[in-house]
């Protein structure tokens, strides 16, 4: 059965198509699905509220529920929520002394194939195809468990790497036997039909990312055991705390961290620091550290930690360490992510946060004195008597081989219905606009990923959970110039890859093996998909209520896929 594409607004909450209803968590980049029973909606939104109260405010809340309509009685006013602002607004504290018991690596047993064998596609000359779509884990942490990060939260992380010998590595978040959030590093040899095996595991209090050192080819896990940023390098995966002064957070709070790695192996880690203020999220610092971690011993070589006051919180950072004008620099983009009260919005029922606008910044790796920033995607205006919040939310970012920043945002304006959908923008590192347009070819829902291949061709991957099966579509991103010499980007070469993912119900954005994670250019793209614990069944209506398991444990499946690109 072919994927079902709904017309704009069909089957979606009213908030996405009108200015009369306040957006709920599922309204932000919705996956088009059948409605859940109201009891499940209330339960999942209650989980969302817990995350909001404990320092959420982004896709931790967005993906905590996929309801069609939020109950009107759900208290979403930040002032009415039980506050854990000591975790979000705490002053930076010194890094605790490291002990070997904080996050000792315990190698788990070899992972068995969780269900079906891998799927290998058939090549058609000149056409992209799915070479591999295979199960990787069935115990990944999911959205329905309060205080536990689902694997698709955020979307800005890198969690898959491809190494020189063809080995693929993937990072999975799960709950250990004691109920703690933990990461597991998995690897798969290049040989066809190779099995995934687990290399190591350790606890983390916050998000975790996987990078590849382009120089040594080592895999690097960056995690937060006991709220301390820590790097683990293969093969030993010995934990080494990063130097600096980092904010100590509660276990259910987020540092809103990001990490990336430069071609010379320089790793940069960023965290958001919320300062004491009467209006949370309106007074923040960006704190970052760049350097080279010690791979098989030693403390590494790190520049001094840098801190820059930025005011309104910008989070979900895509980090691109690189050389700019001969100097090692940190290039990044981030979404303006505020409480509605901080954004000057009225106390509207529903989702308490606003994602509106994208900021670019370029900073010296060793000194924040070399700092420039620009709001490359301006926030949408809010009407004086607003009944809905504006949405201009960055869903992906790419620094291409020509040092152009390419961002895709999802927009929904309370005053201009024509804005709804995906928008593409290209800027240079000075923040000047090179191109800007709406991607009208794409349906106005789902998720989007940009990537560049070994031939410097640009591609866009669109995905969505669908109603009868998941949707997975690849487009070429073409670049031309108009009569005035201005750059114009457009989509072409649409390839429907949906059948490869059946019967699994995709959740959130795929994680791709891209350059900011240390991956080399290739004529294939490897990635990870999080998916519901329960699959689709032909001829049977999909029940979103069972997405995270009939027993309510809040687990997800994770799949590895590889899309082979034309020569």
Tell me what the structure shows.
By secondary structure, this protein is mostly beta strands. The protein is 4% helix and 39% strand. The protein has three helices and 31 strands. The strands form eight sheets. Strands 12, 13, 14, 15 and 16 form a five-stranded antiparallel beta sheet that branches. A four-stranded antiparallel beta sheet has the order 2-31-30-29, with no helix packed on it. A hairpin with a 2-residue loop joins strand 17 and strand 18 (327-339). The radius of gyration is 22 Å and the shape is globular.
Q: Which shape, going by the Cα principal axes?
A: globular
| Content of β-strand | 35-45%
Count of DSSP-assigned helices: 3
Given as residue ranges, the uncertain stretches (5+ residues, pLDDT < 50) are 1-117
Structural class: mainly beta
What is the arithmetic mean of pLDDT?
80
The proportion of residues forming helix, as a percent range, comes to under 10%
Total strands: 31
Quick structural summary:
It is built from 3 helices and 31 strands.
SSE arrangement:
Layout: H1 38-53, H2 59-62, H3 85-89, E1 93-94, E2 129-141, E3 160-162, E4 168-175, E5 181-188, E6 196-203, E7 209-212, E8 219-223, E9 230-233, E10 238-241, E11 245-246, E12 258-261, E13 267-274, E14 284-292, E15 301-302, E16 306-311, E17 314-324, E18 327-339, E19 353-364, E20 371-377, E21 391-399, E22 405-412, E23 421-427, E24 433-438, E25 447-452, E26 458-464, E27 471-481, E28 487-496, E29 506-512, E30 524-531, E31 555-564
Antiparallel strand pairs: 1-11, 2-31, 3-4, 4-5, 5-6, 7-8, 8-9, 9-10, 12-13, 13-14, 14-15, 14-16, 17-18, 18-19, 19-20, 21-22, 22-23, 23-24, 25-26, 26-27, 27-28, 29-30, 30-31
């Amino acid at each position: 059965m072919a994927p079902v594409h709904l017309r704009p607004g069909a089957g979606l909450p009213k908030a996405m198509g009108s200015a009369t209803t306040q957006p709920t968590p599922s309204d932000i980049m919705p996956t088009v699905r059948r409605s859940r029973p109201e009891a499940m909606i209330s339960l999942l939104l209650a989980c969302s509220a817990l995350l909001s109260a404990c320092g959420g405010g982004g896709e931790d809340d967005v993906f905590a529920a996929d309801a069609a309509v939020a109950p009107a009685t759900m208290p979403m006013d930040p002032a009415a929520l039980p506050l854990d602002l000591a975790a979000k607004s705490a002053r930076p504290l010194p890094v605790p002394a490291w002990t070997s018991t904080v996050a000792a690596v315990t190698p788990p047993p070899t992972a068995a194939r969780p269900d079906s064998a891998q799927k290998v596609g058939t090549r058609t000359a000149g056409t992209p195809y799915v070479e591999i779509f295979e199960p990787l884990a069935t115990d990944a942490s999911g959205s329905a468990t309060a205080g536990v990060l689902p694997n698709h939260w955020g979307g800005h992380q890198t969690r898959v790497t491809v190494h020189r010998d063809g080995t693929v590595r993937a990072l999975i978040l799960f709950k250990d036997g004691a109920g703690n959030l933990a990461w597991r590093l998995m690897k798969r040899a290049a040989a066809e039909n190779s099995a995934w095996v687990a290399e190591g595991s350790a606890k983390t209090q916050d998000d975790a990312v996987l990078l590849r050192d382009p120089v040594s080819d080592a895999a690097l896990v960056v995690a937060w055991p006991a709220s301390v940023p820590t790097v683990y390098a293969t093969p030993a995966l010995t934990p080494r705390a990063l130097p600096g002064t980092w904010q100590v957070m509660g276990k259910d709070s987020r540092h809103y961290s990001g990490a990336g790695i430069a071609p010379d192996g320089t790793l940069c880690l960023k965290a958001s620091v919320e300062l004491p203020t009467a209006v949370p999220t309106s007074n923040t610092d960006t704190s970052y550290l760049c350097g080279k971690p010690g791979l098989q011993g030693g403390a590494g070589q790190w520049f001094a930690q840098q801190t820059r006051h930025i005011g309104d919180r910008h989070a979900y950072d895509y980090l691109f360490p690189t050389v700019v004008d001969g100097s090692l620099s940190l290039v990044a983009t981030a979404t303006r992510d505020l409480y509605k009260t901080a954004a000057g919005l009225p106390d509207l029922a529903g989702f308490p946060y606003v994602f509106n606008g994208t900021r670019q910044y370029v900073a010296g790796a060793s000194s924040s004195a070399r700092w420039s920033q620009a709001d490359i995607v301006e926030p949408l205006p809010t009407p004086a008597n607003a009944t809905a919040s504006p949405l201009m939310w960055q869903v992906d970012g790419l620094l291409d081989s020509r040092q152009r920043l390419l961002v895709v945002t999802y927009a929904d304006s309370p005053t201009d219905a024509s804005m709804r959908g995906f928008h593409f923008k290209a800027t240079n590192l000075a923040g000047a606009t090179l191109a800007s347009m709406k991607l009208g070819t794409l349906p106005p829902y789902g998720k989007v990923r940009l990537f560049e291949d070994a031939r410097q061709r640009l591609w866009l991957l669109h995905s969505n959970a669908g109603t009868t099966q998941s949707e997975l579509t690849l487009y070429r991103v073409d670049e031309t110039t108009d009569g005035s010499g201005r750059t114009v980007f457009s989509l072409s070469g649409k390839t429907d890859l949906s059948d490869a993912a059946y019967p699994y119900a995709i959740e959130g954005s795929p994680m791709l093996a891209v350059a900011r994670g240390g991956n080399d250019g290739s004529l294939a793209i490897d990635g990870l998909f999080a998916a519901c614990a329960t699959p689709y069944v032909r001829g049977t209506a999909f029940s979103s209520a069972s997405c995270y398991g009939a027993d309510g444990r809040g687990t997800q499946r994770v799949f590895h896929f590889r899309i082979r690109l034309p020569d």
